[in-house]
Amino acid sequence: MNQVISAKNAPEALGPYSHAILAGNTLYLSGQLGLDPKSGTLPQGVDAQAKQSLENIGAVLSAAGMTYANVVKTTIFLADMGDFAAINAIYAGYFKGNCPARSCVQAAALPKGALFEMEAIAVK
């Protein structure tokens, strides 16, 4: 049976979707923008948005009883692939040791004019 995971410390979904779905031992996390969970606004700059997005991912993982160490795959969406190196440095601060598999693509546009979004898959 699939279980909906909702994190109190992550921003509300912008549409009809859940923060994550736990299917068996696998957690499928929806994309997280760098929205501040309290104000619902995006901070200025890709670095700040990436850090907040990763914090939001962490909140959803925690709500499911997991950590960044449980993440096996991430997908990053960037508004500008020129931000790739800066994002790698931030990302490395959250994933240490055995890093998850990852894809990174440039998107034509992201919701709310965001510069960064990330989704993930984690396994217990």
Tag the structure with descriptive keywords:
124 residues; alpha+beta; 60s Ribosomal Protein L30, Chain: A; 2 helices; 6 strands; globular
Give a structural overview:
The chain is built from two helices and six strands. 32% of the residues are buried. α1 packs parallel to α2. β4, α2 and β5 form a beta-alpha-beta unit. The mean pLDDT is 96. It has helices at residues 46-63, 84-92; strands spanning 3-5, 20-23, 26-33, 71-78, 101-106, 116-123. The chain has a single domain (3-123), classed as RutC-like (60s Ribosomal Protein L30, Chain: A), CATH 3.30.1330.40. The chain has a six-stranded mixed beta sheet with strand order 1-2-3-6-4-5, with helices on one face. By secondary structure, the protein is of the alpha+beta class. It comes from Caproicibacterium amylolyticum. InterPro entries: RidA, RutC-like_sf, YjgF/YER057c/UK114.
